Amino acid sequence: MRPSIVILTGAGISAESGVPTFRASDGLWCGHRVEAVATPEGFAANPVLVHDFYNQRRAQLKAVVPNAAHQALARLSAAYDGDVLLVTQNVDDLHDRSHRGVTPKRGFGLIHMHGELLRARCVETGKTCDWRGDIHIDTPSPFGTLGLRPDIVWFGEMPFQMDRIYDALSGCGLFISIGTSGNVYPAAGFVQEATRAGAHTVELNLDPSQGHSLFQERLYGPATEVVPAYIERLL
Ligand code: APR
């Protein structure tokens, strides 16, 4: 059995599918202040604006499909003789779709650490459910009386499944970071955790990230080129 792998992905892996990244000049925040659309305070101040922002992003998913980088990671899950944990900061469902129908060779997990556009959360109970349509301030929650919010981790909130992620990092032999600018913690600190565990660390990105010097191996170019090439070499 080969060493276990933890893969971290960010907005860059979905860029060539047509999902804009966050920090590009024409980026995903669409001219909104981050505080207005991606914080609990922003939601409390103007829930109509926040719902509208995420409704548009949810609708946008219908027009995009997984690209060659997502597909290469699905091939890895199917063929790699070791455990793979795929941790994404992305709230799109492109990893989910590219893995549909794939039987992993060994253990496989997919964690959306910043939540998912296609899930809704009950404001009152915190319970979540699949959600494909729009959410409005008067959309009833199936679980409580105070309505729904997107099941997205906003700034100031705790990302999901951190115990499971740190557990995997502490035992991994290879850590691969793909398409993330390394600006946002805790994800930006995963490379240091993997290094402490003695893992080989690799950055695949369009250009050097904030923490690029922390990686032992670095390959730069569009995700649809560098990711399939790296995965084929690995397999
Ligand atoms: N191929 C590979 N990398 C790319 C491509 C591409 N085609 N296009 C852009 N990139 C790279 C950029 O160079 C940048 O380093 O992807 C990275 C995207 O960075 P961000 O926009 O900052 O996105 P991300 O790192 O995922 O942001 C992290 O911050 O805004 C919050 O919660 C949000 O999950 C998000 C988190």
Please characterize this protein's 3D structure.
NAD-dependent lysine deacetylase and desuccinylase that specifically removes acetyl and succinyl groups on target proteins. Modulates the activities of several proteins which are inactive in their acylated form. It catalyses: N(6)-acetyl-L-lysyl-[protein] + NAD(+) + H2O = 2''-O-acetyl-ADP-D-ribose + nicotinamide + L-lysyl-[protein]; N(6)-succinyl-L-lysyl-[protein] + NAD(+) + H2O = 2''-O-succinyl-ADP-D-ribose + nicotinamide + L-lysyl-[protein]. It is an enzyme of class 2 (transferase). This protein has 235 residues and is of the alpha/beta class. It folds into 2 domains: 1-19 and 66-114 and 158-235, Rossmann fold (3-Layer(aba) Sandwich), CATH 3.40.50.1220; 22-63 and 120-152, SIR2/SIRT2 'Small Domain' (2-Layer Sandwich), CATH 3.30.1600. 31% of the residues lie in helices and 20% in strands. The chain contains 9 helices and 9 strands. A 6-stranded parallel beta sheet has the order 3-2-1-7-8-9, sandwiched between helices. Helix 5 (68-79) runs parallel beside helix 9 (223-234). The chain is globular and about 50 Å long. The two termini are 13 Å apart. The model has no long low-confidence stretch (mean pLDDT 96).
